[in-house]
């Protein structure tokens, strides 16, 4: 038996996690020139997507939507606020809660950002049905992996 046959489950290219990691890095790199035109990083783009979809929201809900912790979201919000794309303020109803909303300048960026998803599909050669199928499979995997992680705790 060769090393390749005996180590099959341990080969790098056989790892699901590595395929996902490589795909995530490649997709993020494909987004980079599209987002550079908007003056945004990929994480900043994700923050704005949530705010454009939901409107004013709390930092806690924003972090949950992005599946990030507060410590990761906070610096993103500071940079977007410094760029004039969003505002943060304490909730009048609950002083512990911070509300986040896009500014007029952030809303102006929305129209230009609307071209990004189509440009990414064109850049990657995916058509809409392929993208929908792939997205559904990835969400299903995320759900199953999340459940497995919860069971392991």
From TrEMBL:
It is found in: Cytoplasm. The keyword Cytoplasm applies. InterPro entries: ArsR-like_HTH, HTH_MarR-typ, MarR/SlyA-like, Transc_reg_Sar_Rot_HTH, WH-like_DNA-bd_sf, WH_DNA-bd_sf. Residues 13-143 form the HTH marR-type domain. Keywords: Cytoplasm, DNA-binding, Transcription, Transcription regulation. PANTHER family: ORGANIC HYDROPEROXIDE RESISTANCE TRANSCRIPTIONAL REGULATOR, TRANSCRIPTIONAL REGULATOR, MARR FAMILY. This is MarR family transcriptional regulator. It comes from Streptomyces olindensis.
